[in-house]
């Protein structure tokens, strides 16, 4: 108990310049009493004054557009080393009305795992320490924690299972984490061209123009064999200058994301699956606790929101 109080006082002092000091103290107190007693809090909670804060934050920022002094910073970075820490963090964030950004590998193109564009106070839940991979070749299953990188998963499968019958088809970038990949992955505009569709000329032409393209436009080419065994060139393209350009979520009066505002970008991105995803969200997170500027909203009608008491205290 003595240890926790000492640790908490160190952490609280880093918030002294903040206008909501007492609510931060109360938030930190909540974490200190909810986290299991045997853990060293200073290794799990990183305030802006902690020496670890900047390096942790900077290592998450894979899109340098969001590494600027004006990018909103989290109030706290939490680095759970045990699933119970996640439960405790969510409990306290909910109690104190703080937004949570879940971060696994940090490759989100819009940076939604480590920044917030709406200026609301938020906390990063950095899952990079939770990267266990357990393989069961008899059952043909794998249990993989959210922070494990795709490269780590491929490596484990190759080294622990001495059989060519098993593999896991996922992204080509080894540092993308399993958490973000499985919960959405990378939607990139791709054009496939086979040799009979002029792939050679196109690749030649691409080499001439690639270095002259605007900096905001990224086009890369991957040459591979397709399922029919034909050689093909894949042109992946991404507009880097866009910032949530498909649309932003808005909140309803009772405090959850408006389905109709989210539908504007959601239908472009997920097409017919958007409504199905919103129906699932309604079942698993009707209060819309896990949200971002482009998160799936719960499919809740306005009247129902009031009936179900889905009014967030502000
Ligand atoms: C350099 C680079 C290369 C890439 N290469 C490929 C590729 O080869 N193939 C491909 O398909 N995609 C690729 N992508 C896209 C990548 O798969 C997605 O951006 C993916 O969402 C990144 O996951 P992450 O965990 O690394 O990122 P994060 O930024 O940590 O997470 C991405 C999103 O998922 C959410 N999230 C993360 N973990 C959880 C969790 N446990 N629960 C709920 N939500 C969670 C975050 O909040 C965020 O919104 C690439 C991206 C980059 C930047």
TrEMBL record:
PANTHER family: OS08G0158400 PROTEIN. GO terms for molecular function: FAD binding; oxidoreductase activity. Keywords: Disulfide bond, FAD, Flavoprotein, Glycoprotein, Signal. Belongs to the oxygen-dependent FAD-linked oxidoreductase family. InterPro entries: BBE, FAD-bd_PCMH, FAD-bd_PCMH-like_sf, FAD-bd_PCMH_sub1, FAD-bd_PCMH_sub2, Oxid_FAD_bind_N. Its cofactor is FAD. Residues 70-287 form the FAD-binding PCMH-type domain. PROSITE patterns: FAD_PCMH. It comes from Dioscorea zingiberensis. It comes from the Eukaryota. Pfam families: BBE, FAD_binding_4. This is FAD-binding PCMH-type domain-containing protein.
């Amino acid at each position: 108990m003595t240890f926790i109080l000492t640790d908490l006082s160190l952490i609280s002092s880093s918030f002294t310049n903040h206008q909501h000091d007492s609510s931060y103290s109360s938030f930190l107190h909540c974490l200190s009493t909810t986290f299991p007693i045997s853990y060293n809090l200073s290794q799990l909670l990183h305030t802006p004054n902690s020496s670890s804060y900047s390096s942790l934050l900077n290592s998450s920022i894979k899109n340098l557009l969001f590494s600027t002094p004006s990018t909103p910073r989290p109030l706290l970075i939490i680095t759970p080393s045990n699933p119970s820490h996640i439960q405790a963090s969510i409990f306290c964030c909910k109690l104190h009305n703080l937004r949570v950004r879940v971060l696994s590998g940090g490759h989100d193109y819009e940076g939604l795992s480590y920044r917030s564009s709406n200026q609301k106070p938020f906390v990063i839940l950095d899952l990079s320490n939770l990267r266990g991979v357990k393989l069961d070749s008899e059952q043909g299953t794998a249990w993989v924690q959210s922070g494990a990188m795709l490269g780590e998963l491929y490596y484990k499968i190759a080294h622990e299972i001495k059989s060519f019958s098993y593999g896991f088809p996922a992204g080509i970038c080894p540092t993308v984490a399993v958490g973000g990949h499985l919960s959405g992955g990378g939607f990139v505009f791709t054009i496939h061209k086979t040799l009979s569709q002029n792939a050679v000329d196109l690749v030649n032409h691409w080499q001439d123009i690639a270095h002259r393209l605007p900096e905001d436009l990224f086009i890369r080419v991957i040459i591979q064999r397709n399922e029919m065994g034909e050689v093909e060139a894949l042109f992946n393209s991404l507009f880097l200058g866009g910032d949530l350009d498909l649309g932003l979520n808005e909140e309803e009066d009772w405090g959850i994301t408006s389905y109709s505002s989210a539908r504007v970008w959601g239908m472009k991105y997920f097409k017919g699956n958007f409504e199905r995803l919103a129906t699932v969200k309604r079942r698993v997170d009707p209060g819309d606790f896990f949200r971002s500027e482009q998160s799936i909203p719960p499919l809740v009608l306005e009247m129902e929101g009031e009936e179900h008491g889905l009014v967030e205290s502000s």
